[in-house]
Amino acid sequence: MKGFVFHGPGQASWQDVPDPAVTEPTDAVVQVDAVTICGTDLHILKGDVPEVPPGTVLGHEAVGEIVDVGGEVRGVRPGDRVLVSCITSCGRCRFCRDGSYGQCRGGGGWILGHLVDGTQAEYVRVPHADLSVHPLPGAVRGADAVLFADVFPTAYEVGVLNGRVRPGDTVAVVGAGPVGLAAIATARLLSPERVIAVDLAPARLEAAHRLGADAVADVHEAPGQLVADLTDGLGADVVVEAVGLPESFELCTRMVRPGGHVANIGVHGKPAALHLEDLWSRNVTITTGLVDTYSVPALLRMAAAGRLPTGQLVTHTFPLHRMEEAYEIFSRAAETGALKVVLGEEQHAEVVPAA
């Protein structure tokens, strides 16, 4: 089969790789119908995630069909259409019993495309399949469903729920990439008074408006002042960091009100200053987190009911064999207008321009 293989910083290729097979009785093998590229994959290619060994098939999000299962798998069987979660869960360790699947110590956590071969291939082996794949509602298309492997649960759990968004809140989202946009969409489910999006790309700010942001601000045009003007000088109740840069994190801490929450989603590759000289007396809560994906079943139900605007996030589609081109388009998002790219043999061969 073919897969997208990481060879070291700046080097990867779509090439022949061995077919995966069931190696443990809790495994499943999935034929990939749709897969997407994550910003974390770009971090791996840049060399920011050194524990990923050369020779690894990248990717941790997919939709597909079960083609084989181990003898201890009970929840799915060959022929089932499933979502492959970005997080693998053993279901037995202390963290899994608490629902903190991202911290699994039983051979799970974020392993696909990280510590074992991932989903950007024609087939993928999924360990601990009973808790690591989700049967898909028939009403949800593969190109939409793949967004619930990582993007939507990350935004909802690490941003909205960790940030404790409540009805009537002012929520500021710094970074209107795919996860930031999903944070805007899922924050709206909790009836905030307003959602403010901050980014430097006009196309992403337009997308933020479409997904429910009440106000948008260019990062170079005093977004903190806009937040202050809209909140009588108090600041935002919840600020979601969805970029992963030191300056974006520090901007978030300046925009939050006393007693407010900063929910960090972004993947940080460099240290960020924590200005405790300003924050210590303001009762600010700062949370970080790796997604656990416990919200996936509920999010899938909301998607099937038409409550989440998944289609608006997918700007480009490709067949699987154009993986290298898809990476190139996604890595130049500021120029190409790419939000999420989806690949699969059932996808259109032509690039769909951003709205």
Approximate strand percentage: 15-25%
Rg from alpha-carbon coordinates: 20 Å
**Helix content range of the residues, please?**
25-40%
Q: Distance between termini?
A: 34 Å
Uncertain regions: pLDDT < 50 for 5+ in a row? 347-355
What is the level-2 CATH architecture name of the largest domain?
Answer: Alpha-Beta Complex
Structural class computed from helices and strand pairing: alpha/beta
What count of structural domains?
2
Tell how many strands the DSSP assignment holds: 16
The CATH superfamily of the largest domain is: Medium-chain alcohol dehydrogenases, catalytic domain
Please count the helical segments: 13
Describe this structure in words.
By secondary structure, the protein is α/β, with parallel strands linked by helices. It is 26% helix and 24% strand. The protein has two domains: 2-149 and 293-343, Quinone Oxidoreductase, Chain A, domain 1 (Alpha-Beta Complex); 152-287, NAD(P)-binding Rossmann-like Domain (Rossmann fold, 3-Layer(aba) Sandwich). The protein is built from 13 helices and 16 strands. Helix 10 (276-279) links the parallel strand 13 (256-264) and strand 14 (285-287). 53% of the residues are buried.
Summarize the structure.
The protein has 355 residues and is of the alpha/beta class. It has helices at 39-46, 94-97, 129-132, 142-145, 151-161, 178-187, 202-210, 223-230, 246-255, 276-279, 296-304, 323-331, 333-336; strands spanning 2-8, 11-16, 28-36, 56-57, 62-69, 81-84, 123-126, 133-135, 170-174, 194-199, 215-218, 236-241, 256-264, 285-287, 314-318, 340-343. The protein is globular and about 60 Å long.
